[in-house]
User: Which sequence fits this backbone?
């Protein structure tokens, strides 16, 4: 899944970016409100982490413009400590959740997991499809109770599909959601990863829907 990280404090942004990548997300970043607004208006993010105090354009205005333009991606805002009115205004502007600075990275990651699964109508952090399970908290994947070792790319691909069971996902959608903007994208790469992933999963788990893409099925 692909995240937009908007934070003007360079050190915090670097730390969060590293933690998000480690957690299996593709990450685009912006250090000001103007760039953030443009990226969020034009790229398909699975979630956004948005600091409210930003140079050039403040975070609330950025959020207001996205929502005004019909952008519905989950947005978690970062607010100043003890600023309850920022939280209220932020949520009323269209934020889905907030964290007050300073916060623990683990809490940010847990909230993002909740936001991205809720966006797909999923309540449990344990995703299941037949004998296949993916625990979004630990990143553990099992088939009939046996742990399956996946590379980070294979995991990202499977996690994206498992958040959308039964739905046809095109190669271009996968490319847009599994790689950051600066990544050299090639949709053939997706086919390679699907082939590798299939070898590690029960047969027919990832169905090819000719001309349309892939679908995760339980049988
Ligand atoms: Ca700031």
Assistant:
């Amino acid at each position: 899944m692909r995240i937009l990280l908007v934070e003007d404090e360079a050190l915090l942004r670097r730390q969060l970016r590293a933690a998000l990548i480690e957690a299996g997300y593709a990450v685009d970043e912006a250090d000001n409100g103007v760039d953030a607004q443009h990226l969020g208006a034009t790229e398909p993010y699975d979630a956004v982490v948005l600091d409210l105090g930003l140079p050039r354009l403040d975070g609330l205005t950025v959020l207001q413009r996205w929502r005004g333009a019909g952008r519905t991606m989950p947005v978690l805002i970062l607010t100043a400590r003890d600023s309850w009115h920022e939280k209220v205004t932020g949520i009323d502007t269209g934020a889905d959740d907030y964290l007050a600075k300073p916060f623990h990275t683990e809490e940010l990651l847990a909230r993002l997991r909740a936001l991205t699964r809720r966006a797909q109508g999923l309540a449990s952090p344990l995703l299941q499809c037949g004998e296949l399970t993916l625990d979004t908290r630990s990143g553990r994947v099992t088939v009939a109770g046996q742990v399956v070792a996946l590379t980070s790319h294979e995991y990202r691909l499977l996690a994206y599909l498992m958040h959308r069971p039964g739905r046809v996902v095109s190669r271009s959608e996968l490319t847009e959601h599994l790689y950051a903007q600066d990544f050299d994208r090639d949709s053939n790469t997706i086919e390679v990863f699907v082939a590798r992933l299939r070898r590690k999963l029960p047969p027919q788990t990832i169905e090819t829907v000719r001309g349309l893409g892939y679908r995760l099925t339980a049988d």
